[in-house]
Prior knowledge:
This protein is α+β, with helices and mostly antiparallel strands.
Amino acid sequence: MSEETAITDAAIEGSFGPLERFLESHGFEKLMLRWAPDAATLNVPELAFLHEYWLRLPRSGALARYDAIDPLEMRPALGNVMLLEADDAANDYRYRLYGSRIAERAGFDLTGKFTRDVPTHPAIGLFFRVCYRACAQRRIPLFTRHAPPANVGVVYWSRILLPLADETGAARHFLVGNVPGKGHPT
Length: 186
């Protein structure tokens, strides 16, 4: 079993310790990760808005449907939105949309690229893949707050991963809100 698979399996079971230790071993600060975040955790307006939007979308079982996404309805958060889809094997995730505010702050645009293409540090790509795979398996929202590599110029990113169902009901798509933070996270 690969290290990435073991870390993903632990996250699916609800333990983020292996992921935190992996990132700390690469020089990254401690993470904040919460399954099914509450309103107090979603204290960033754009993320709270996207969570409420996701809850209102038509469902396929427990999941909101990908084909029901309407960018015009997400206007208050649009520059901080990413839409992703799994590759055929669900081993990596392609950015179908990489919000303009995210690209501006990060210094790069990943639209059309995969998580493996994140140009900051290989550990960040693994972090993203683990989160998406675990979220697809659990089929519930995941909140993350992490400090990116210093070259990104952001103190931390707050994200909400919202799984979306494809036409078969599988969680192969994600609506993601990603907002840069100022100062130290709380």
